Amino acid sequence: MLRQQASDVRFEWGPSGAQAVATPRGCTVVVDVLSFTTAVSVAVGKGISVLPYDLAQPGAEQFARDNDAQLGVRRREASPSRPWSLSPSALRSAPFTPRLVLPSPNGAAISASVEGTVVAGCLRNARAVAAWALENGYGTSTAPISVVAAGERWPDGTLRPAVEDAIGAGSVLDHLARAGCQLSPEAQAIAGLFRSSGDIVGIVRACGTALELDAMGFPQDVEVALEIEAEEIVPVLQNSVFGPTPRAS
C-alpha cells in the first residue's frame, strides 16, 4: 500500500486514503468544506461538542441517546424540534446544545474511523489547524501530519474528488509548507493547486457541490464555508468527541 512514509506531511483522498496515510502517532486533518468540517468548526466555535457518526451505519438514534446528545439530521429534515443539521448556517442560528451527533457519509465517516489525533480542518480555520498541529509536535517523521480531503460521492457510491476539498486541504498544506515541513509529492501538488487557484472564493461558489447546495436552498452554507481564516479554535477529536480546543500558545 502507498503510504508516503518518507514524508512528514502527507495527503490523500477519502476513507481509503485516510487509512493508507494515517498513523496512530500522527495527526490526521480531515477536510470536508461543504460541509462536515465547516459545520464542526461552527458548532465547536459555539462551545458545542460534536460526535462524528458514519451515516452509512445504522443506529445513530441509539448512539445519540447513549451519549446524551442531540442528533443532527439531513438539511431538509431539520425542524423546530430538531434544528441541528449538517448545514453550517443553520447550526449558527440553532439553539445551543452541549453535545451533538453529526452523521455524514464523508467527513464524519473518516473522522470516526482513523487512529491517532484527528482534527477538523476547513477554509475557516486552515491557519489555526496548521499552527496547532506544529505547536503540538506533529509534522515529523515519527508523528506525521496526514491531510485527507473527504470528497463527495457519485450516485454509485464511489469517491468523487471535490475541488472545494482540494482547495481546503491545499490551504492547510500551504501553511505547513511555509512553516518548513517536508511535504510528500502528493501534498506538494495539492498545496501548489491552492497557491495557483487565483479566485478561491469564485471557484468554490461555482463548483458542483456549491451549485447543488444552492439548488437545495442552502446557498448560505457556501458563504459560511468561505469565511476564510475566521476561526482560531481548533476542533480536536478526543474520546470520539470534537471539543472546543483552543490553539496552543
Question: Could you characterize the architecture of this molecule?
Answer:
- It is a single chain.
- By secondary structure, the protein is α/β, with parallel strands linked by helices.
- It has one domain (9-239): ComB-like (putative 2-phosphosulfolactate phosphatase), CATH 3.90.1560.
- The chain is 39% helix and 19% strand.
- It is built from 11 helices and 11 strands.
- A 6-stranded mixed β-sheet has the order 1-7-2-6-10-11, with helices on both faces. Strands 3-5-4 form a 3-stranded parallel β-sheet, with helices on both faces. The protein has a two-stranded antiparallel sheet with strand order 8-9.
- Helix 6 (126-135) packs across helix 7 (163-178), helix 7 crosses helix 8 and helix 10 (208-216) packs across helix 11.
- The termini are far apart.
- The relative contact order is 0.23.
- The mean pLDDT is 94.
